[in-house]
Write a structure and sequence with these properties.
This protein is of the alpha+beta class. The protein is built from three helices and five strands.
Length: 108
């Protein structure tokens, strides 16, 4: 039990796959690219915000800008977030399948 007023600040180390880096760099909508980067910064600071589990240890950070962007990630040891891939609402099903496959490749 923590004393009243004690707040533990949780921060995460962020790593990304080449697939995620390529997707993020290729976003044509500059506002969306900035919004995704800011969303990742907030996640690193411990504010995961609007997150939904999509199964097999994969979750999506939802970015409510433009086409409704998604950043698929997994966590390890409660201190590491691995960004697997990004996408939009329209490609969600395929992106989730790809994220699950990437997670199996990059993490034991």
């Amino acid at each position: 039990m923590s004393p009243v007023g004690y707040i533990r600040a949780m921060t995460y180390e962020i790593r990304q796959t080449r697939s995620f880096a390529h997707w993020h760099a290729s976003l044509r909508d500059l506002g969306a690219r900035i919004a995704v980067a800011r969303r990742i910064e907030r996640a690193a600071a411990g504010n995961l915000g609007d997150v939904k589990s999509v199964g097999e240890g994969i979750s999506e950070l939802r970015v409510h800008v433009g086409a409704g962007y998604r950043v698929y990630f997994t966590t390890r040891n409660q201190t590491l977030i691995v960004l697997l891939i990004g996408g939009s609402k329209s490609t969600q099903s395929a992106d989730i399948k790809q994220a699950k496959a990437l997670a199996k490749e990059v993490l034991p």
